[in-house]
Structures are given as structure tokens and as C-alpha cells.
Amino acid sequence: MTRRTIIVAVLATGMAALFARLGVWQLQRLAERRAFNTQFERRLSAEPVSLDQLPTDIALAQYRRVRVTGRYDFDHEIIITARSRQGAPGVYLVTPLIPDGGGRAVLVNRGYVYSPDASTIDRTRWHEPEHATVEGYVHIIPSHLARDPRSVANPMAWRALDRERLARALPYPVEPYTIIQLAHGERPPGAPTRLELPAMDEGPHKSYAIQWFSFAAIALYGVVYLLWTESRKPCAGGAQSGSVWGE
């Protein structure tokens, strides 16, 4: 067996091991996704609770169903720009809600509104009754975004929410999460199109795992085939030895 054959065989075996490891990693991601979906379904199927019944650890509050009654503060409403629904451009309306029982305000994502430029709308057209009972699920607001998400032209238009910047932009303390309002009962006048629940598919992890395992199998097959073809080649030393005995 030549040195070149040995090097190729070792490299191909190493690649096969790497591909197999990536396949295992995708299966682990699939298991995590399934566990997330199970947790997500369990939290969303539970009865809505009040804000003060949520876990103090906001990570445990994620996707919990909640119900809160209070008063909307439309003066400090935020537009989340560059959104879409069924291929149409638009924005999300996020409105502070001051709970009746006191405490920190909570931001309510009231839903989607069509906007040709995905950044500007007439907000007054989308004022719902000021006093409302909101039912939806908790979504944690990210923090420490690298870039300022606020529009220079309109300080109440944001590309995304940022917890620290919100604390400075609003005149009162707010919870570190939004409530994604779900459709409940009859649609009030001026209500945006409520957002739907996130898709709970398993993602592409299974198909990716199959691809990586296929690549590993192909690499191993290549090694076996290479070694088999090398073993069938006549040995150079054996040919010379035969010529000597024949003399």
C-alpha cells in the first residue's frame, strides 16, 4: 500500500467521523426542538394567569398564558417596523398597558397592520377601547442589542425591542416581556390583526442529520473501495521475485 493511499484513507476516515459527529449534533438539536415544542404546548394549553402569578424567573415565564386588565397608553405606543404577513409589508403595534391593580406597565403586541413602506401608519386609526382585558402569551424582550433599533426620523418606530433602551424611552417602568395578544372573542373596533401562535414544527434538523450521515457513509465507502482496489493490485516486489526464480 502506497503512502498516498494511506494518507487518503486517513483523511477520508477523519471526514467520515466529522460528518457522523455533525449528524449526531443535528439529532441532539432535533431532541431539543421536540422538548421545546412539548414545553411550549404545555404552557400554551394551561389556563391564563395574572401577571403577579408568573414565575419571577423570566426564562420560566416565557410562553406562559396570561390575562391582564388595564388601560392602554396610546401616547407611548411603539411601531415595530419591517414586518410582514402573508407576503404583505406592515408593522406591529406594541402598546403599553397600565394594569388596574397597579405595578409596572406591560407592553402588549396588539398585532399586525398593513403598511406599504413597512414603517409608517396612521396610529389613530388603530386605537382600540382604552380600557381592555388582554389575553395572550409572554415573550421575553431581548436586551443589549448591538445597534440602536430606533428610527432617527420617528423615535417611536423601532426595528426591534431592547429592554435597556425601553427603560430609558418610556416614562415608567415596564415588565421585561411583551404580551403577544391572541384573538379572543369578537374583534374590537380598531383592532389590528392579531398574531398567530408560532409554528411548532421540528425544523430541518432531521433532514440535515440524514445528509450528514449519508456523507459519512459515502466517505467510508470510498475508504473501503480504495483499500479493496489497492489489495487487488499485483505486488511489485512479488513480480520481481518471480522473475528471479524463473531465471
Layout of helices and strands:
Layout: H1 3-45, H2 58-61, E1 65-72, E2 78-85, E3 88-99, E4 105-114, E5 131-140, E6 157-158, H3 163-169, E7 174-181, H4 205-231, H5 236-246
Parallel strand pairs: 2-6, 4-7
Antiparallel strand pairs: 1-3, 1-5, 2-3, 3-4, 5-7
Helix pairs in contact: 1-4
Describe the protein.
The protein starts with a helix and ends with a helix. The chain has 247 residues and is α+β, with helices and mostly antiparallel strands. Helices cover 37% and strands 23% of the residues. The C terminus is likely disordered. The radius of gyration is 30 Å and the shape is elongated. A 5-stranded mixed barrel has the order 1-3-4-7-5.
Radius of gyration: 30 Å
Elements, N to C (H/E): HHEEEEEEHEHH
Could you give a short account of the major beta sheet? 5 strands, mixed, barrel
Give the number of DSSP strands.
Answer: 7
Question: Characteristics of this structure?
Answer:
247 residues; alpha+beta; 5 helices; 37% helix
Give a nutshell description of this structure.
The protein has 247 residues and is α+β, with helices and mostly antiparallel strands. The protein has five helices and seven strands; from the N terminus they run H-H-E-E-E-E-E-E-H-E-H-H.
